[in-house]
Design a protein that fits this description.
alpha+beta; OB fold (Dihydrolipoamide Acetyltransferase, E2P); elongated; 357 residues; 13 helices
Length: 357
């Protein structure tokens, strides 16, 4: 039986076969992508090419790089030997070509560092000591000894402070770090403590960030500050770094508690000495109150609040009561309440301020 004749729509024959039968198969043609024309399109394409690609790991910061000058100070103090050297070979024992000896005696031109045993015995979560072939760095070391305490070999050393024994020289700021390491070694090895403290005061007024941190940390740990320190401490109490503000504040508080800002103890101090000391004390107390009330860092405010009842601040009770009620940070309110308690105990004992601890 002959089929019925149906005329063919000629418009469907105008395109390729794949286009003519796309609708019959339920397929849809992909939409053309918009072109990036002109200068704007080129700029957009360049920006997209700079975007980070997912799955590509970024380079991790070197854990051996010191965090700040205080960390650098502690690292260098740990070793009996400090050298500037370049790693020639890593191997089972790292082989270093010594360029300069900053501390220590009997150090040859080439030394070895035994580090694998220390890496195996390091505390969990602590980075390993990781020398890199070809790297130039400062190394804080000690002699490798046997069970009797005798050196195993003249050229054999071990890390004195674990992973922190390696102080890599950064690509940027190499000169500042180099100066800081040398200055810290000289400071720690000075037999005259008076000259050493004068060196710290000079660091405080300098521009090397590593040395500024180190001076602030030493003053806050050992209560070294006196009238010579106060101008620098007052300046760094306004530093952008909360850590520096806290160190400066703690050093000032210790100076007030220990009476290091009072006139020199002579039978008859000069009137200008009394006036100058009084101005320094007032400036320090005003700083403590300001930081306790207005500093943006809760840790700095808490440090200042701890000093309020000990520094002889006028109306300390009223200020502490306001802070205990109004400060948004719980740790600061707690310190204010503890300060009020100490003031109450000292009043019962008949003393205006509690004795420093």
């Amino acid at each position: 039986m002959a089929g019925t004749y149906r005329p063919v729509d000629q418009s469907r024959r105008s395109g390729p076969r794949s286009q003519r039968f796309a609708g019959a198969r339920g397929l849809r043609r992909p939409r053309p992508r918009p072109r990036l024309a002109g200068t704007g399109g080129i700029l957009l394409a360049a920006l997209l090419s700079l975007a980070p690609v997912a799955g590509i790991a970024r380079e991790r910061p070197d854990p051996a790089r010191p965090r700040d000058g205080a960390d650098l100070l502690q690292r260098i103090a740990a070793g009996e030997t400090v050298v500037l050297a370049r790693v020639e070979r890593r191997g089972a024992k790292a082989r270093l070509a010594v360029e300069e000896v900053l501390r220590g005696t009997g150090v040859g031109e080439t030394i070895r560092i035994a580090f694998r045993g220390d890496n195996l015995a390091r505390p969990p979560g602590t980075p390993p000591f990781d020398p890199v072939e070809g790297e130039e760095a400062f190394w804080v070391l000690e002699r490798y000894t046997d069970s009797a305490g005798d050196p195993v070999a003249d050229d054999l050393f071990r890390p004195a402070a674990g992973y922190a024994s390696r102080i890599p020289i950064p690509a940027e700021g190499a000169r500042a770090l180099d100066e800081a390491v040398r200055e810290i070694v000289r400071y720690q090895d000075r037999p005259d403590r008076g000259a050493a403290e004068a060196q710290l005061v000079a660091w405080l007024s300098g521009t090397n960030p590593w040395l500024i941190d180190a001076a602030l940390r030493e003053a806050s740990r050992f209560g070294l500050a006196d009238e010579a320190w106060i101008p620098g401490l007052l300046a760094h109490a306004r530093d952008a770094s909360p850590e520096r503000r806290r160190w400066a504040l703690r050093a000032i508080g210790l100076a007030l508690e220990r009476g290091r800002l009072e006139p020199r103890r002579t039978l008859r101090p000069r009137p200008d000495e009394i006036e100058s000391a009084g101005e320094l004390v007032r400036a320090c107390r005003e700083l403590i109150v300001r930081l306790a009330r207005t500093d943006e860092s809760a840790e700095v405010r808490a440090e200042a609040v701890r000093l309020l009842p000990r520094a002889g601040v006028p109306e300390a009770r009223r200020i502490l009561e306001a802070i205990a009620d109004e400060d948004p940070a719980q740790e600061v309110r707690y310190e204010a309440a503890a300060g009020l308690y100490r003031l109450g105990r000292s009043r019962e004992a008949g003393s205006p301020n509690p004795a420093p601890r």
